Amino acid sequence: KPQMVALQSYAHGNRPSTGIPDNISEVKFQPGSLWDRSENTAPMQLDSVLWRESRTLPQPGSQPGSQLGSQPGSQPESTAVMIKLKPQEQKGPSTIDNFPYYPWDARVIDAKSKSRKQQPSTTSTASHGDYDQIYDYLNYNPISILTLGGSVAWGGSISNRYDAFPFLLGDLHPESRVDNLAIRATGASYPAACIQSLLEGDGAFPEYHVAPGVSSSDGPNAISYDIILLEFSVNGVESTDLLISRLKRRYPDAILVYVHLESITHPSGSNLNSDFFTKLMAPGNGVFYIFPKEEAYTRAMKKKEEKVELDGVGQHVNNIPKYSDLFADDRHHLSEIGHKMIANKVMDLLHRTLSKHHERIRPRRPRLGTWGGGDQCYMWLSSWGYFPESIEITGGGEFTIFDESKQKYSYEISYGMNATFNLDRRSFGGKSIPVHLVYMTLGNPPLYPKALVEINNDGEGDQANSHMLDPQTDPAFPEWSWAHLTRGEIIGDSKPGVNRITIQPIEESQNPFRLVGIVICGACEEEENYVVASNIRVRVPETI
Length: 544
Known about the structure:
It contains 12 helices and 23 strands. It has helices at about 95, 105-115, 130-140, 150-155, 165-170, 190-200, 240-250, 275-280, 295-300, 335-355, 520-525, 530-535, and strands spanning about 5-10, 45-55, 75-85, 145-150, 175-180, 210, 225-230, 255-260, 285-290, 305-310, 315, 375-380, 390-395, 400-405, 410-415, 420-425, 435-440, 450-455, 465-470, 485-495, 495-505, 515-520, 540.
């Protein structure tokens, strides 16, 4: 039977009440708790939000309905909400329509309450004639998900990063796997040049951020992903086309989904529109979702119909979240509500796609392709203190953390020192492949020094090639000199076998020379697109 439930969170640590309260004003319990006055044993779902408000709690002995807050600051403050619950409906996707606040929660409740005794088919041999078959496939079966993107997909600015939309998709089944390789303040160029190393190498990314409860000991080198999520609009979409090409070659049966996000503080340009993403995703047969701009969202909110369906949030008009509610306090990253909206929209998008193209449901034996030209990358800027074991260093300098608050690492070489990095390059078909060094830049005038670099290898008769690293030759200088950025720069060609790279700062500066990565991109050479690795930009933000 329906029931009323009061939710109340205290800002000053009041201890929860041990008994059922007589009225709303006496409700006292921890955030997230529920008071259940009924004898219901079935799962409950939200029926409606009756009211919510912030108020000052009454003094002991005050009567319900008496004036609150007569002495501001003298009493604990509280945010209270009254909601109405009803028994959860146990049939397919209809629960979404009956969950007026956040449809994603209804989808999860439905998936977790579904009986596992009669498992739906997980392959394309099943019948695909009706809606429920596709819904069952997406909601009641384990799915392998790979995520590449920036800080929003990573889970920045929310209290628990595992509430980010990629991880939410994995909540629908306990055996789903989510490999979240999103990297904060990073665009598409890095994974485009280094996707093989990100997934299989020993230095590009040392730990796999999988959903809680899923073992990360099994590396993803032999996994055939069902869904690949891409999110780069906020940090830079350059080279996304190469990334899509490489992913589709490796995972031909995966569905690629581009999630275009917005930011209130840094809105995207008008060029990132439906036409752009249609053209971008076409070679990989992918799909895309475009987050609404504030103007479109606000116009939809003003509709006078009794109910609206707006980007996965179906509810009474006066209860629709404001546009700002979809964002965290910084008005840049998504809030928990925003992540739930994105998760729900991605699942709706996949449902529409598979309903129209049922042959794209995971085959019984998914194919695993090749990396083509491949790559050999080492990146330790965000390595949590891990330096690649396969690189041997001689000379001076040290591997150290240079920003403790944001856990950023580099190999530092001071003026008067030099360091040689020895690495064994793979064959790459015997070709000469350019080497990019990735190092830190900042300031005008630069706070980092110029450095002389030499590269040589074991080839008979080969002579060392020299190159000068100068922060002022960076195409981003001086426009972006205010930002603490990485720069990728070609220093010469590598060859099969041992290659030795020697770095020597040639001037004193405020900061030592900081090397954060080495990139060898065979796929870039194959595509004759060397600028991809040169565009690897990771920004160390001013705040956490």
